[in-house]
């Protein structure tokens, strides 16, 4: 038994979990305990989502069951060869912590991952046990996200989906070469095989629930994955390509991008510097372009430079528009939704508002200005009843005019 107190172990294992970004709780089924039965809720009043300054969700109790691990992934602070303090919880301890934090309204659910102890099967069984006790013995109806272990028996991985709202398997790195070099114990085809199994189970469960009301639910919030950005030499274009393949093949709800951050006692094969956090942000923006704006992966890749990297000073939508100027200007009073969605500065809500408003009147520049943060960015790309960007779209200095001005770094920021 560990000599650390529960509080010390909580500090170690909550800190060790911070490198995993895939903790958003969107998309699950609505459940609550307003009928007086059970405990917790995935919805409704009294549940607040809190986000860390870097945008990550912190309203889930985010823990590792243990940071002991028999694997040696170079980018991971918990790898076998790392010299970190180790700790471990029993499944019952994680259950007790979850319930006590939930009752104090500190959290809305649990995000549980783990290093691999003894074997992948043993670890997976322990993770499942936490979710089973919460659901079966405590009627816990809050959100549960379980990280699953691709090396575990598929039967065990499938059990995780019966208790959890969301399951995830980290694809870790965008290329097979990167995985072989930095995570020698992991195997790309095996990771994708496990994702495929989860996808089949999710689809089958959805199909069954359409036909039988009592059909067991399986990971109703779907599956997600995470890619580490900047630990290997993969370009943004490669990352975008990998993400789109994963969305297409496994119906993922989300791909999370986590900018590699240098870890204590880092392996010598890792870069010394972290990639700019803005790179992670640009990848999220490109992800949105594919999922909500109708861009094909190749189009997002076209926004990158010759080395496959997305610009950091402007967003990928603007970068694409500047490269494909022949697609502009777009007449906001006539263009179809797909063309409006390509206009830099017009989001999905603004496009919806444009489509609704133009049914009743002809739109002027001031109407569009009300829908966007900065009409300056839009003007070169649109035509309205009273505005046409003569020559503006062809100006050689258009990029410089639209890019945000560089800011002096603050010495004491
Ligand atoms: S399997 Fe790899 S990434 Fe996961 S905890 Fe172990 S060393 Fe870290």
TrEMBL record:
Keywords, in A-Z order: Iron, Iron-sulfur, Metal-binding, S-adenosyl-L-methionine
Cofactor: [4Fe-4S] cluster
UniProt xrefs under SUPFAM superfamilies: Radical SAM enzymes, RuvA domain 2-like
InterPro entries: Aldolase_TIM, DNA_rSAM_put, Endo/Exo/Phosphatase_dom_1, rSAM, rSAM_sf, RuvA_2-like
GO molecular function: catalytic activity; iron-sulfur cluster binding; metal ion binding
PANTHER family per the UniProt record, alphabetical: ENDONUCLEASE/EXONUCLEASE/PHOSPHATASE FAMILY DOMAIN-CONTAINING PROTEIN 1, TYPE II SECRETION SYSTEM PROTEIN K
Protein name (database record): DNA modification/repair radical SAM protein
Organism encoding this protein: Novosphingobium colocasiae
